[in-house]
Amino acid sequence: MSAPQNLRVVLASRPVGRPCPDDFRFEEAPIPEPADGQVLLRVQYLSLDPYMRWRISAAKSYAPPIEIGDVIVGGTVARVEVSRHPDWAEGDVVLSAAGWQQYALSDGSDLRRLDPTIAAPSTALGVLGMPGFTAYAGLRNIGQPKPGETVVVAAASGAVGSVVGQIARIQGARVVGIAGGPEKCAFVKDELGFDAVVDHQAPDFAQQLAQACPDGIDVYFENVSGHVWDAVLPLLNNFARVPVCGLIANYNDDPAAASGPDRLPATMREILAKSITLRGFIQHEFVDAQQDDFLREAAQWIKTGQLRWREDIVDGLEQAPQAFIGLLDGKNFGKLVVRLDR
């Protein structure tokens, strides 16, 4: 009988436009042996997130691109299988960055021990993880909603947008979500408790959004861009704040074949005329100062029922490439997670 192997997914080629399954390659390698000061992790859950599209591109970004042949990056929840580290014990469940593979080594510096009494371990990849903290940091540092203001959230049923809207409501704002399709819109309104929701797939989307925001928009949390931004821009109030978290409508664009409307002149005109603050951010710039605050507050909101979430779980690492492609097409419903180990 052959020895167990480590199944992993590596970058086979850089996508041009929309990724395809051939851009990813499955490999088997020996399960690594931990040295002194290391632990062997067995991945239980893998997070799929839109930022990964940038990492498999060669375009200049906030982090270096994944090289051809490298394991695809990704946040993971893992179990410590073997420990040769004094701070970690076999059986510990941790948040890690093992990427798209079944096993990985760590020196412990990138691990966070998880408390299963707060919520299921998979939530460390969503509502209690990077997406949740992204929502928290973007609102706290850039959006800064005040009681009674109108906050609009794009991709409101997703991992980040759903948390943005709920935190804004906790802070006393009126929250309008934007989602795609009746099922997602119903979830945002009925389960998450947004004050209003608008379907961006509706032919009269811009008119519906204007009706949902009779007093204009004070904070717009940008996750999408494209035609959603076109509808939001004229509704922004004086001194509106726009945290720019994601641009998923553009992630598959081929820079060499760029087409469509030039939104820059209209955007710059509104920024100037209305004294709008528009600021991009990456959550890690706030982690050291604010992650502990987030984890403490989010755990309390979960305990009181003020913070809810939805997970979209697919089973098997073999499903990761197709699930990721679907994520970029908006096919997921909630935080997309791959379950490797039941």
TrEMBL record:
Pfam families per UniProt: ADH_N_2 (PF16884), ADH_zinc_N (PF00107)
EC number from the UniProt entry: 1.3.1.-
Residue ranges of every copy of the Enoyl reductase (ER) domain listed in the record: 17-338
Signal peptide per UniProt: none
GO molecular function: oxidoreductase activity, acting on the CH-CH group of donors, NAD or NADP as acceptor
Alphabetically ordered keywords of this record: Oxidoreductase
Protein name, per record: NADPH-dependent curcumin reductase
